[in-house]
Structure formats: C-alpha cells, structure tokens
Write a structure and sequence with these properties.
Shape of chain A: globular
Oligomer: heterodimer
Largest interface: A-B, 34 and 35 residues
Low-confidence stretches of chain A: none
Helix content of chain A: 25-40%
Number of helices of chain A: 11
CATH superfamily of chain A: Aldolase class I
CATH class of chain A: Alpha Beta
Low-confidence stretches of chain B: 128-148
Shape of chain B: globular
Mean pLDDT of chain B: 88
Number of helices of chain B: 8
C-alpha cells in the first residue's frame, strides 16, 4: 500500500539554507546538501527546496545546489521558487530535480502548466498554491475588525483566495477552483500552503486542505501550521492529505521526522519505516 | 562500462550518480550508438510520455541498438524504460512501444489518484503460479518441506520482501506472459512493479530515488 509522506522543506537563498520569520531577519542555517543528507538519514520521504533568491542573476546558484544534492542524496527532490518558463524547468530537471513547483508563473499564465506537463510529464509538475481564508476578520461597527473564533469560522462561508509573489499579492482566484484548473491543465500534484496557519504552529488548516483534496484527484502536500505530531495525523487522515510538509519544526529539531512517523504508525497510519 | 541511454526524457543525472554511488566505476550518459553497442551493461531510464519517448528514440536511431543489447547484456529499465519494452500503450492514441514483450501499458482507473506518487512495497511473485493459486502453492511447498516458492531474482538479492521503493507514474504494464512478473505492488489493484527475464530487469519504481534499498538494487546490477 502507498504510504503517507513526511516532507521537510528548506528555504534556500543564494545557495545557503536560511531561517527567519516570514522571510524577515534571515539567518544563515547551513549548507543545503549537508542538511539534506541529515534528513535522508532521518527517513524523510522527499525533500523540497524553496529558492527565495531575489535576483535573477543568481539563478545558477540554485542549479549548483540541486546538482550537488543529487550527487549525494538519493531521494526525491522538488524545487520551487522563481520558475517562470519552460527553460527554468528544464535546467532544474537536468540538474537533478525530480519535480518542480510552480506558483506565481502558473497563476499569471496557466498555459505554462500544460506546456510543462506535455513536455516533461505531469508527474514532475507540482502547482504550489498559497491560500488565505476570505473574511478571516469580521468588520465591527466601530470600524475595527475582530479576529474570528472557531465558531465564527463555522458560520462564515468557506472560501479561500489565492495569493502570489510569496503571499504579497491577492489574485481574486478561488483556491478550490484554481486547484481544479491546475489539475485539468496537467499538474501532477498540489503543494497547498495555508497562509492563515503558516507560522502559527496551531496545526494545518484542515478545512482548506479537505476542500481541495475532495475537489481534485491528484496527490496533495499540505503545508503551513504544523506544531506537534498530532497535527500530522489529523491532516493526513481527517483532511485527506497525501503528504505533510514542515520547515522550521524539523529544522530546529523541535520534532524529529522519526518521532512523527512512529506516532503515525502507532495510530494506524501507513508510513515508510 | 555502463551506458545510461540519453534520449532527452528526464532526470538521467540522478541515475548516473546513483550507479556511481553503488560502486559502478565507469558510467556514461550517452545517445551514441557505438558507445551503447560497446557497453557491458545498459540502463534505460526515463520519465514522461511514451509517445515522445518513441519519437526521440526513432530520431536518435536508437531502437535497433537497444533491442540488440537486450539480448546480449545485462539490461536495467527504469519507469518509462519498463513501459517502453511493451507492444502498445493506452497513452496518447495507442502509441506503439519497442515491442520486446507482448503486452499493454494501461492507466490507473479514475477511482485512484494519479500519478501513483510516493513509497510503496514490492512483493516478489511466485514462479509460474497464477496469483489466485499463490496461497495454495505456498502452503503446499511449505508442507512438503520445500524451499521458498518466491522468485529468486538477482537484482533483488539482499533486499527484504515488501521493501519500500519510490514510485511516480500514472501508467502500469500488463504483460501477456505472466512468467515475466518479478514483483507486484498494491495500488487499488495488484499491478506489475517489475519484470525479469534472463539478464533483463525492468522496474516501474525508481531505485535511484529509493535511498539505501534502491542503491542496494543498483549495486546488485553493477556486480552482475
């Protein structure tokens, strides 16, 4: 039987792993290849590199990182960040990436998904979606807004909006509809990040994840909000995700991948052991 | 020297690097007919669509040399390199493959998520025993004090049964000759995850992406 996957994510800037809160106060956190190797030893099921290098001139640096990783680590590797054209995808795949994750460029020009899937196969095209709940704050009479409680969420209509440019630009697109369109265009997998949950450590956004896993028939990686091992269990079972991703949690070893997997196994979730 | 056949379909670098890590001294990623012809062993990797793959193999004039090599020397097919060995695919208007073996390449039914992506187990098949008779035959052989009836496959030496390998595909092969089946894997159905015949082994999973167990398989190939 196919197992659920646990995926650590590395933010890479100018060839180094960086850590910070919401891309601010970035600190150097080591060499991607060494950290990738550590994750391989910890039985991570895949790796994701998110390249947050700002300038286009430095694109070659990520290719070098991917090349060095592929020489040393023999597990599936997905690379995202700054991919705009077929040539970017080809360069990453040739360097040793198994999948590429496209976000902003796919929203701006959805035909890119189809072109890429036709050329390289759906299995290596991941569409990354950053989604934020619509009306997560309610306007109040005094002109201020009130943060919604859990009860309020249940009362509100459940809608999520797609954001691009690293979560800075709203697009007006409905996340569920966009996921369906991405699938129809040939995406082989969806990497879904809840912007509301990201960084909170209060658990993945189960409703958002569930809304999308029920709408599409391709695998889904849930991202954003993992804080404890129970969060992995709920998103992989209740919300129907095929894989769960976390970054800082694994990086700072607040939780070890093995701990998460052994917990899941005890709870009856099939993981690779 | 091991030739990894380059026909522009996917991540060949990983395959070459994994072979080197598994102890291969001399690995060449090539589309040169003479080099392939001279190689001691051949690896046919690849991901993507069979139609494009056949088009590229034709354009590079590699079909003849691949078919000849399969009969002469150890051959490892990976993913698309397994599917290409069969006669016909449902993918893209009944594309014809190399036709080394009779059989079809089919798509997973729509009630399963496709691609089949992630880690799944491979289970060795018994020799020439229909799967429905597997339990009976196994039982009988154990009672008779007989040896394990499961296929003894060179490339799976020292790899435990039901080991996890990495898969990433939407199509699977259905060989006419069930005797070819080396392992099966469960994903909605029991599909054929690898075949073997003589010096040929071809698998749907990616040994080059399957960490230590994958490197073990490649090491077995390097040592053939």
């Amino acid at each position: 039987m196919l197992t659920k996957r646990i995926i650590p994510c590395l933010d890479v800037k100018d060839g180094r792993v960086v850590k910070g809160v919401k891309f601010l106060n970035l600190k150097d956190a080591g060499d991607p290849v060494i950290i990738a190797k550590r994750y391989e030893e910890e039985q991570a099921d895949e790796l994701v590199f998110l390249d947050i290098t700002a300038s286009a001139e430095n694109r070659n640096i990520i290719l070098d990182v991917v090349r060095r990783t592929a020489e040393n680590v023999f597990m599936p590797l997905t690379v995202g960040g700054g991919i705009r054209a077929i040539a970017d995808i080809r360069a990453l795949l040739n360097a040793g990436a198994d999948k590429v994750s496209i976000n902003t460029a796919a929203v701006k020009r959805p035909a890119l998904i189809k072109e890429a899937a036709d050329k390289f196969g759906s299995q290596c095209i991941v569409v990354a979606i950053d989604a934020k709940r619509v009306n997560s704050q309610w306007p109040m009479a005094n002109g201020q807004t009130k943060k919604l409680s859990t009860i309020d969420y249940r009362l509100s209509t459940k809608k999520w909006e797609v954001y691009i440019n690293g979560g800075r630009t709203p697009t007006g697109l409905d996340a569920v509809k966009w996921a369906k369109k991405a699938e129809a265009s040939g995406a082989g997998e969806i990497l879904l990040t809840s912007m509301d949950a990201d960084g909170t450590k209060n658990g993945y956004d189960l409703e958002l994840t569930n809304a999308i896993t029920t709408a599409v028939n391709i695998p889904l990686i849930a991202s954003g909000g993992a804080g404890k091992k129970e969060d992995f269990y709920t998103v992989l079972t209740e919300a129907g995700a095929d894989a769960a991703l976390a970054a800082s949690l694994f990086h700072y070893q607040e939780l070890r991948i093995k701990e998460v997997k052994s917990y899941l196994q005890k709870k009856g979730v099939l993981v690779r052991w | 020297m091991i030739s990894v056949i380059d026909y522009g379909m996917g991540n060949l670098r990983s395959v070459a690097k994994a072979l080197e890590a598994a102890g291969a001294g001399d690995v060449l990623v090539t589309s040169d007919i003479k080099t392939i012809d001279k190689a001691d062993k051949i690896v046919l990797p690849g991901v993507g669509a069979m139609q494009d793959a056949m088009k590229e193999l034709k354009r590079l004039d590699l079909i003849k040399v691949i078919k000849e090599s399969i009969l002469k020397k150890p051959f490892l097919g990976i993913c698309l390199g397994l599917q290409l060995l069969f006669t016909e695919s449902e993918e893209g208007h009944k594309t014809r493959g190399l036709g080394v073996f009779k059989g079809k390449v089919k798509r997973f039914s729509s009630d399963m998520k496709a691609p089949h992506m992630g880690w799944n187990q491979i289970v060795r098949r018994t020799k020439d025993v229909p799967s429905t008779w597997f339990d009976y035959a196994h039982h009988k052989s154990l009672r008779a004090g007989g040896r394990e009836t499961k296929k003894n496959i060179n490339l799976l030496k020292n790899i435990p049964d039901a080991a996890y390998f990495y898969f990433c595909h939407s199509y699977y092969v259905v060989p006419d000759d069930k005797g070819l089946i080396a392992t099966t894997t469960e994903y909605g159905i029991d599909f054929v995850s690898s075949i073997c015949k003589g010096n040929l082994f071809a698998c749907q999973f990616h040994p080059e992406k399957s960490q230590s167990v994958g490197l073990k398989l490649l090491e077995n190939f390097v040592r053939l």
